[in-house]
């Protein structure tokens, strides 16, 4: 906001962007004959979402996309990451994405769509969802529909969003849709999403996609102490939540024999699957929010409430609160160095790591509505973003190739099981009137982009 602000600086050509996902912003739940997704089913269940909220209207982006894009473009971003609603596409409503893409291009913003951001069609879930191998082929068909329709204008594609969080929260636990609670029995759902990724990369490339990547949630995992039991527990947790999802893509195999066996695919088939899954990528998307600390479970100790979701007591690892002077209003620890850390770790683990784009990073604060002067003073969000951009810059200095950074999120939206209290947007949404207001962080981000060496 002030002329004296010193902004972190990035190499020429570095891409700044903002991210959203379809289910969290679009609303228009049954427009054009759109069928329900697993999230429509989940949100209808009493007690599933805070305050019983649902996303039937959400931020009403489906009807307000044109003015939303105006606000996004006015910040000077290069890229806008959004996702497609699979059920909307199945209903034949591709016109919406056509208009969205054209509006972005006219505004000078590059569309970077994600095929799948957790809103599986309920009809596919009824046939087993991601535990059914056929779902991967259905995803590939859907990718083909989209690239056929939009491939003349969309160059950059992201296959899947956070397969690890979707598997863990939705299939292993019950905190997200489809709330299956399978524990380690969720590993086949992980494999089928990875297979979907591999199949989608092939379909996208066949149709001439210019640049293909994936968006993965990564968190540095540290052990609570040097005790070998804690170190082993942390390594096992990280293998299951980080490396199970990235090793197949970047190394062509699972991190551990036990995990390889638990995905439940016969050996010969598994080798063919992994061959597809390790397809070369043009960029690797990293979503980062906070680190995790793990110890070996101590008898009689209560671990509930340490993380946003509880790890079952019979698992061989337990979470310990991460030390931090600062937390977001969601309760997440603010640890910018964790972002540098995970980027350097990825670079060291993967000799062929493609250029990285930070596809999500941001913070939830319970912002107050605009005051009489129309401003929303979200300085804690500004300092979160500033510190994390500096952490990205530190990783670049350490030799990691990072080509871009997207803020989560462009606008306030439906934060899954947490409903509407958790606001991640640079743009405020009044969820009764649906009116938009730029937060101070929007102006800060605009000025930061304008202050870069060359845009
Ligand atoms: C992403 O999920 C999603 O892609 C996006 O849709 C969502 O709105 C956004 O981030 C904000 O949540 O304490 O065990 O939960 C990120 C979900 C957040 C899950 C950080 C892991 C840390 C460990 N992740 N969380 S835990």
Automatic annotation (TrEMBL):
Keyword Hydrolase in annotation: yes
GO molecular function, one term: beta-galactosidase activity
Family the UniProt entry places it in: Belongs to the glycosyl hydrolase 1 family.
UniProt-recorded name of the protein: Beta-glucosidase
NCBIfam families: BGL
This protein's UniProt keywords: Carbohydrate metabolism, Cellulose degradation, Glycosidase, Hydrolase, Polysaccharide degradation
PANTHER family in UniProt: GLYCOSYL HYDROLASE, LP05116P
Coiled-coil region(s): none
Transmembrane segments: none
Domain of life (superkingdom): Bacteria
Active site: 360 (nucleophile)
Catalysed reactions, as listed in the record: Hydrolysis of terminal, non-reducing beta-D-glucosyl residues with release of beta-D-glucose
Enzyme Commission number(s): 3.2.1.21
rRNA processing recorded as keyword: no
């Amino acid at each position: 906001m002030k002329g004296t602000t010193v902004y972190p600086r990035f190499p020429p050509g570095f891409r700044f962007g903002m991210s959203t996902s379809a289910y969290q912003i679009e609303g228009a739940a049954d427009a054009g004959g759109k069928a329900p997704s697993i999230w429509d089913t989940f949100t209808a269940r009493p007690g599933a979402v805070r305050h019983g909220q649902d996303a039937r209207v959400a931020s009403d982006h489906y009807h307000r996309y044109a003015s939303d894009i105006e606000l996004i473009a006015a910040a000077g971003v290069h890229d806008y990451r959004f996702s497609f609603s699979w059920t909307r596409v199945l209903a034949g409503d591709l016109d919406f994405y056509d208009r969205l893409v054209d509006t972005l291009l006219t505004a000078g913003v590059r569309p970077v769509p994600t095929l799948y951001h957790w809103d599986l069609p309920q009809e596919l879930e009824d046939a087993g969802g991601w535990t059914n191998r056929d779902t991967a082929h259905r995803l590939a068909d859907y990718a083909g529909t989209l690239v056929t329709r939009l491939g003349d204008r969309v160059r950059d594609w992201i296959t899947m969003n956070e397969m690890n969080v979707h598997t863990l929260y939705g299939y292993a636990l019950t905190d997200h849709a489809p709330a299956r609670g399978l524990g380690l029995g969720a590993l086949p759902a992980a494999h089928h999403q990875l297979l979907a990724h591999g199949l989608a990369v092939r379909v996208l490339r066949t149709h001439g996609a210019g640049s293909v990547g994936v968006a993965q949630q990564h968190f540095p995992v540290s052990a609570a102490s040097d005790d070998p039991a804690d170190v082993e527990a942390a390594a096992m947790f990280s293998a299951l939540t980080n490396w199970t999802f990235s090793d197949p893509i970047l190394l062509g195999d699972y991190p551990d024999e036990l995990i390889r066996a638990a995905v439940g695919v016969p050996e010969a088939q598994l080798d063919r699957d992994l061959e597809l899954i390790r397809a070369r990528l043009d960029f690797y998307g990293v979503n980062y929010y906070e680190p995790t600390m793990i110890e070996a479970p101590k008898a009689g100790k209560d671990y509930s409430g340490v993380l946003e979701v509880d790890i079952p007591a019979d698992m061989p690892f337990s979470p310990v609160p991460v030390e931090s002077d600062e937390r977001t209003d969601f309760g997440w620890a603010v640890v910018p160095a964790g972002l540098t850390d995970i980027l350097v770790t990825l670079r060291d683990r993967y000799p062929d790591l493609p250029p990285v784009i930070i596809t999500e990073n941001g913070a939830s604060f319970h912002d107050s509505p605009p005051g009489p002067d129309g401003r929303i003073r979200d300085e804690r969000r500004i300092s979160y973003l500033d510190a994390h951009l500096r952490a990205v810059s530190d990783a670049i200095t350490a030799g990691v190739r990072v080509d871009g950074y997207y803020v989560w999120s462009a606008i306030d939206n439906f934060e899954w099981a947490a409903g509407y209290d958790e606001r991640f947007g640079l743009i405020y949404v009044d969820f009764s009137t649906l009116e938009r207001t730029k937060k101070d962080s929007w102006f800060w981000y605009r000025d930061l982009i304008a202050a870069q060496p060359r845009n």
